[in-house]
Amino acid sequence: MQMITFENVCKSYDGVDVLNNLNLKIADNEAFGIIGPSGVGKSTILNCLNGLEKYQRGSVVVDGVRVETLSDAELRRFRKNVGLIFQNFSLIGRKDVFHNISFPMECWGCSKTEIKDRVEELAEVTGMQEKLKSRPAELSGGQKQRVAIARALALNPRYLLCDECTSALDPRSTASVLELLESLREKYKITIIIVTHEMAVVRRFCERVGIIDGGKASLVGNVAEVFREVPQQLRAVLGDEEGKVSFTIDIHDFESCRKFLDDRGIRYGIAEEY
């Protein structure tokens, strides 16, 4: 079985440790969550895995290959096998949906036939086939993330790295995107790693999870088992859903409603139309 392994990885910025002897194993075709408060190095883990950032010590091993030993040319080929999606979608505003999805294939010199076939396939599986001529500004947040997912899969990668990919979405779009990711994992047999600060996202999607604290994976294992061990103070930071009441109201005076909730310290979400 192929596996991603972090072996005593250390990464610092200006002398400040972000990752401190991080050890982590992620199995092939797994849905794995990386969770922790803001600023603990979650995104850095993905960047080290993809070779976007160099680490000072340790090793990242993917399919038996040590990422830090790759030459620039080898690293470029390696990255072809790793798709990335982000919180802010990172779509190209001047390009329509078709050409946003096709952009990685164009960079790799794929033929027009290959591009057309792959884009149409991905547009269908992500539910964006009716929006291929639309530009990003014409799409909802959930639709933009679907385009970003399709683009990340354009080169048929084995790994999909999702960096806070639901943080900018309303609850309904979040549920829809996570459902899509699960169907894509089954269809394409890919490994998906989700970085998030929300326990609810991990509960809904992941099989296993690693909690990052102090630059290390402090707890790793089955989601239910790990979350039973999460300290209460960290549970509050990670937006645990236990005890949350979900309801919808129609607002006629938005600012008054916002002030009412803010004054009482009530956390709330505002849903946009998908």
Summarize the structure.
One of its GO terms (molecular function) is ATP hydrolysis activity. Residues 4-239 form the ABC transporter domain. With 274 residues, this protein is α/β, with parallel strands linked by helices.
Description:
Keywords: Amino-acid transport, ATP-binding, Cell membrane, Membrane, Nucleotide-binding, Translocase, Transport. Residues 4-239 form the ABC transporter domain. The chain has 274 residues and is α/β, with parallel strands linked by helices. Helices cover 36% and strands 24% of the residues. It has helices at residues 42-49, 72-79, 97-107, 112-125, 141-152, 171-188, 199-205, 223-228, 232-237, 254-263; strands at residues 3-13, 16-27, 31-35, 57-62, 65-66, 82-86, 159-163, 191-196, 208-213, 216-222. The protein has a six-stranded mixed β-sheet, with helices on both faces.
